Amino acid sequence: MIDRYAVFGHPIAHSKSPQIHAAFARQTGETLSYEAILAPLDGFAASLADFMAHGGRGANVTVPFKEEAFRLAAARTPRASLAGAVNTLLLDGADITGDNTDGAGLVADLTRNLRVELAGARILLLGAGGAARGVIGPLLDAGVAHLVVANRTVDKAVALAALFDGRVSGTGFAEPDTAFDAVINATSASLAGDLPPVSRAIFSPRTLAYDMMYGRDTPFLALARECGAATADGLGMLVEQAAEAFYVWRGVRPDTAPVIAGLRA
Ligand code: ATR
Questions:
Q1: Mean pLDDT, range 165-170, rounded to an integer
Q2: Binding site membership of 219 for ligand 1 (Cβ less than 6 Å)
Q3: Cα(67) to centroid(ligand 1), Å
Q4: Interior CA angle at 234 toward 75 and 24, to 5°?
Q5: What is the per-residue pLDDT for 204?
Q6: Are residues 122 and 17 in the same domain?
Q7: Do 51 and 161 fall into the same domain?
Q8: What is the pLDDT of residues 68-97, one digit of tens each?
Q9: Which atom of ligand 1 is nearest to the CA of 194?
Q10: Residue 75, exposed/middle/buried by CB under 10 A (0-12, 13-18, 19+)?
Q11: Number of structural domains found in the chain
Q12: Of 162, 200, 206, 243, which has the highest C-beta tally within 10 A?
């Protein structure tokens, strides 16, 4: 039987993952199938068990199942433990190993595609939910000098920062008022068309403003552009986290640039 892979989510119809992994498989000559599976909100575990019983070798997990996937995985990679969430599962018989490739995906997009020098950088991360937590460890590993986590609910930013080393601090949106090398929007504000109430002083012409959301311009990116900063959406991160998952499953690293270009076109 052909090795099966899938992304589980709810909703899932608009996922680009099947297209991305099909492109990776063509490019690398790997023989596999990759599908999107809509799991019922209360039926992720059952859906995954069925997939495992029918040739499932690996899975990606998206909203709202990343924390449940973390709990279901008997074994976890260190980066998944640090993230507190799992977006990639390795399936071997009845064994489930949980990994998280989101942070590696962001770091790859920032450094390889967007040419941001992370070693020694000052980074402002907006948001303190699952998306923010998943990327902090990999950013620190890339040599970031200071990472400020700013959140609407300040207590959550402070608690999140406390999980990491002294380079990370937590605060509210209004406090940071000097320019950063990169400002990363990991809140879900853009989904609602909202703008976190940040100071314009966090942006300079040397700043990269990055919104993890992709596919449309956001108020956050519009403000950053007005302030002279460079901007990027999260499409590169989406493709890079997929490439990292593909590597984890198949041991082959796909070339992401043509896939990102294809999705943009
Ligand atoms: P995700 O997995 O996308 O991170 P989450 O864990 O629910 O989802 O976290 C959502 C994040 O977006 C939180 O940081 C949240 O702020 P609070 O902790 O104060 O709730 C932030 N967020 C959501 N809507 C927002 C908005 N309209 N403006 C600013 N921040 C918002």
A1: 98
A2: no
A3: 15
A4: 65
A5: 98
A6: no
A7: no
A8: 999 999 999 999 999 999 999 999 999 999
A9: 27
A10: exposed
A11: 2
A12: 243
Residue 161 included in any domain? yes
Give the span between the Cα atoms of 13 and 258, in whole angstroms.
23
* CATH code: domain of residue 154: 3.40.50.720
Residues 21-27 have a mean pLDDT of: 98
As a whole number, mean pLDDT of residues 53-75 equals 97
Co-location of 132 and 202 in the same domain? yes
Dist CA 124 CA 32 (whole Å): 39
Q: What spatial distance separates the first Cα and last Cα of the chain, rounded to whole Å? A: 34
Q: What is the pLDDT of residue 216?
A: 87
Minimal-distance CA residue to ligand 1 atom 18: 153
Among residues 79, 100, 121, which one ends one of the domains? 100
Which domain, by its residues, includes 132? 103-234
Residues 14 and 74 grouped into a single domain = yes
Which of 221, 210, 204, 205 is CA-nearest to residue 183?
Answer: 210
Q: What pTM value is reported for the model?
A: 0.97
Residues 207, 86, single domain; the answer is no
Q: How far is the CA of 8 from the centre of ligand 1 (A)?
A: 22
- 66 part of the active site: yes
Q: Does residue 93 lie in a domain region?
A: yes
Contact (Cβ atoms closer than 8 angstroms) between residue 123 and residue 144:
yes
